[in-house]
Amino acid sequence: MVLGRTHIKDVAAKRKVELNSYIQSLMNASTEVSECDLVYTFFHPLLRDEKAEGIDGIAKCTDVSPSSPTSGKVGGEVKLSISYRNSTLFIMVMHIKDLVTDDGADPNPYVKTYLLPDVHKTSKRKTKISRKTRNPTFNEMLVYSGYSKETLKQRELQLSVLSAESLRENFFLGGITLPLRDFNLNKETVNWYRLAAVPYL
């Protein structure tokens, strides 16, 4: 079902109630959750992302939060082709198989990637959305231009698979983090990677 513009206020009111409930449960959670870096920087203008330990802070917080998108079941694999030429990194998102959802319904999957560290989130790339499938085929190229091999060896590719939802927040289906120093950028690498409950941006 797709809601028209006349229902925007109804949807907003419903989301307000859900957000209030979520924030209340977050504040009443353990100190390890309610006082973690991710929560602090959501409500306060701290420059956490400029700290070297910022990514670790995200991982710590999302791993322990009972309401985290990573708290559900995660499964499946993603097939990628990774190559490099002319100062450009090419990430071909080919296929995903055997995605898992908590409610058993077929998701609307899409892929989002970052090159970490990325303070300003300028490296975000996304694929199109595949509708109602656990085994989507994308065959989409995500391109990162202007990177030397030396720079890429200091970066990690973070890939998240999410489901696009019209009546609720998009939810996390799994992800991977690949240190690019582990790849031979002089040749194409094609491989399947198992999805895990990693933090996402």
Automatic annotation (TrEMBL):
Q: Which residues form a coiled coil?
A: none
> From which source organism is this entry?
Phrynocephalus forsythii
GO MF annotations in UniProt: neurexin family protein binding; phosphatidylinositol binding
| SUPFAM superfamilies named among the record's database cross-references | C2 domain (Calcium/lipid-binding domain, CaLB), PX domain
Identify one Pfam family in the record: PX
Q: What InterPro entries does the annotation carry?
A: C2_dom, C2_domain_sf, PX_dom, PX_dom_sf
Name this polypeptide is given: C2 domain-containing protein
Q: Which GO terms describe its biological process?
A: exocytosis
Describe the location of the C2 domain by residue ranges: 74-193
